[in-house]
Design brief:
488 residues, alpha/beta, 24% strand, globular
């Protein structure tokens, strides 16, 4: 069996108005073309591609992993030029590997571009129509994908991450490979739920979401069911077919419609119980006045770069600046601000920083390129770049000011600029849950707060339009809370 594989990972926040350029992949993320280079990358980075190759190579398949690209951080919509470059390279790489019996595509599922709300659906459609591929097409996705009927029309089988924070890239790739090895016919069943769920209430090991995952595993025991994937969607997208989803890949005669609807209604019934976990600054400051057994995690939810926000908010700087000589240990903070970075690098001792234009003054203790390789339990071995960066020391505050954003929920993020996060009083992360895997930290050390930013957990304050206004909690009682669809 001959199998071609490609991987493209990007997540959009359509409330971030800055288009994502190709440099987000080629310079600040991952861009690997050609089979030898992709195999070399898989040897060092935990990934879906590596998981698939492990299963397929062991099965004696002829495998051709031809292209991998991953963003340095989620962001706004892809620019037209960026999307065209990614689309062209992915199609050219796969075309060179065809004919093949199977194509496996490892995608995210929440990518948007200027002029295209459903990037993944468009890519799958291109493989079918432009490349003329009529074999088995297997798709793996992020747990936060926004599932569309176009995706499920073109993909024969689908699977997704089962962890939040995401630590099962390799296992997801393995599942995709096993679906590729299965040659039987399939039908995809989609239950769409008209809700937006706070990512902070979707841990895979405990709580309500863990129970939903358990019910999905139970559904997989039904005759003819191959995979059940659940998708508490990336909520910051004002796009068509938006909503939380459950997807079943099964045999055409599998009886799944009623069980899937039952699971969807159970999930929908939880909606009034979901929690953001946000705390007041009064409570956060009271907590920071004492050292814990390990660093406190200052979780900036609204400006989370992992949710596609720009990273430009200085909310924590504003709140903690008056306490910079009072707190009992170093507090590591981060703001994306190219203008402030340049001013500090030129020697300015006082300058405004962040979207709040908060004035800071201090000593520059680091300046240079900030590049790191994640070493925690998520994105292990993957490389990221903040670009040119400075660190300003002011009392106990250590303020990282970078040219660009990055996935920041790993200690290597601060270590690459000479800081020691594991010895700090507190560490800021612009991430919802990833810090729990990156720092191997328990939930109780998290101090989550709201502020300016495109990834606010206060969904009602975001400018959703049209049908998206029907989603809970924007509408407390959506007219059609559950809808069902099946492929032919």
């Amino acid at each position: 069996m001959k199998i071609a594989l490609a991987q493209f990972i990007f997540e959009s926040n359509t409330f971030n108005s800055v288009p994502a350029a190709l440099e987000l992949f080629t310079q600040r993320g991952t861009w690997v073309v050609g089979e030898p280079a992709v195999r070399a990358w898989c040897a060092t980075a935990d990934s879906q591609m590596a998981g698939s190759l492990a299963v397929l190579d062991a099965a004696g398949c002829e495998t051709h992993p031809v292209f991998v690209t991953k963003c340095g951080t989620p962001a706004g919509r892809l620019s037209e030029a960026c999307f065209a470059a990614i689309r062209n390279q992915l199609c050219a790489s796969l075309r060179a590997a065809l004919p093949a019996d199977v194509v496996i595509m490892h995608l995210h599922g929440a990518a948007c571009a200027l002029g295209e709300d459903d990037v993944e659906g468009a890519l799958l459609e291109a493989v079918r129509r432009e490349l003329g591929f009529d074999g088995r097409l297997v798709l793996s996705l992020d747990l936060h994908a926004n599932i569309t009927q176009r995706m499920l029309t073109h993909a024969d089988a689908i699977t997704a991450y089962r962890t939040m924070p995401h630590t099962d890239f390799h296992a997801t790739g393995e599942r995709a490979a096993r679906l590729a090895l299965d040659s039987g016919p399939t039908r995809r069943t989609l239950a769409k739920i008209a809700v937006l769920i706070p990512p902070t209430d979707t841990h895979d090991a405990t709580g309500r979401f863990a129970a939903i995952l358990g019910e999905a595993r139970h559904l997989e025991q039904l005759p003819g069911v191959l995979d059940v994937s659940v998708f508490p969607v990336q909520p910051w997208m004002d796009v068509e077919e938006m909503g939380t989803s459950i997807v079943v890949t099964g045999r055409p005669d599998a009886v799944v419609r009623a069980p899937v609807e039952e699971l969807a209604r159970h999930w929908y019934a939880q909606r009034v119980e979901w929690q953001t976990g946000l705390q007041s600054w009064e409570k956060i400051i009271a907590t920071l006045r004492r050292r814990g057994a390990r660093p406190w995690m200052l979780v900036d939810t609204a400006d989370a770069t992992t949710g596609g926000a720009e990273g430009t908010s200085a909310e924590a700087v504003v709140r903690l600046w008056p306490l910079r000589h009072e707190l009992p240990g170093d507090v590591l903070l981060w703001v994306v601000d190219p203008v402030a970075r340049a001013a500090a690098e030129r020697g300015a001792r006082s300058f405004p920083v962040g979207s709040q234009h908060a004035t800071v003054a201090g000593e520059v203790i680091f300046k240079g390129e900030a590049n790191f390789r994640a070493r925690g339990r998520a994105y292990t071995g993957m490389e990221f770049s903040l670009g040119p960066t400075v660190v300003v020391a002011a009392g106990c505050l250590r303020i990282v000011i970078s040219e660009g954003g990055a996935l920041c929920a790993d200690p290597a993020f601060y270590e690459c600029v000479g800081l020691q996060p594991e010895q700090a009083l507190a560490v800021q992360v612009k991430s919802f849950m990833g810090w729990r895997a990156g720092y191997d930290a328990p939930a109780e050390v998290g101090l989550a707060f709201d502020g300016p930013g495109a990834a606010s957990l206060n969904f009602a304050r975001l400018p959703f339009t049209g049908p998206r206004r029907e989603l809970f909690p924007l509408n407390p009682a959506p007219a059609e809370p559950i809808s069902l669809w099946q492929s032919n």
